[in-house]
């Protein structure tokens, strides 16, 4: 029973997630909604796969008497892990940091898009301090003060 036996699969799944996060970021930065739903769906599938792999590893650690978490894995790795196992474990942590940062930036981009959309909706709904731009007849309802140009 080796809790490191699926680290390579976890690493591959996390690499796919990082790639999807980069695709998502490009779509968000370019304001290209086409393809975003597909990327989000693919991300969810990858995350589910990763959760299954990590769950299997945690359960195996528990069976071996270690805590069922990353600290338990690190302890097992220090006591029993091969050099290859340690390399995969380190690469997994490095990829996790990349994914965390990409996810953080994507969250900021999404927040900015939501803010811009909310501002646009506010203007379209006429909730600005200036009132509605157009009346029910479709004509400009903002009146200018002062005299009109060309009128004496």
From TrEMBL:
> What protein is this chain from?
Flagellar biosynthesis/type III secretory pathway chaperone protein
Per its database record, what is this protein's job?
Required for the efficient initiation of filament assembly.
| Lineage of origin | Bacteria, Pseudomonadati, Pseudomonadota, Betaproteobacteria, Burkholderiales
Gene3D superfamilies, alphabetically?
A: FlgN-like (1.20.58.300)
Q: List the residue ranges forming a coiled coil, or say none.
A: none
Any one biological process term the GO annotation gives: bacterial-type flagellum assembly
InterPro entries per the UniProt record, alphabetical: FlgN-like, FlgN-like_sf
Q: Which keywords label this protein?
A: Bacterial flagellum biogenesis, Cell projection, Cilium, Flagellum
Query: What is a single Pfam family found in this protein's UniProt entry?
Result: FlgN
Q: Which family does it belong to?
A: Belongs to the FlgN family.
């Amino acid at each position: 029973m080796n809790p490191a036996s699926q680290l390579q699969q976890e690493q591959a799944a996390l690499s796919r997630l990082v790639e999807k996060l980069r695709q998502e970021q490009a779509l968000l930065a370019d304001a290209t909604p086409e393809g975003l739903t597909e990327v989000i769906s693919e991300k969810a599938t990858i995350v589910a796969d990763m959760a299954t792999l990590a769950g299997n590893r945690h359960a195996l650690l528990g069976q071996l008497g270690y805590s069922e978490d990353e600290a338990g894995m690190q302890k097992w790795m220090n006591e029993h892990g091969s050099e290859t196992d340690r390399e995969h474990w380190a690469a997994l942590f490095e990829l996790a940091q990349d994914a965390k940062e990409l996810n953080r930036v994507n969250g900021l981009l999404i927040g900015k898009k939501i803010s811009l959309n909310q501002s646009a909706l506010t203007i379209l709904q006429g909730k600005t301090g200036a009132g509605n731009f157009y009346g029910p007849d479709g004509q400009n309802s903002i009146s200018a003060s002062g005299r009109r140009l060309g009128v004496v």
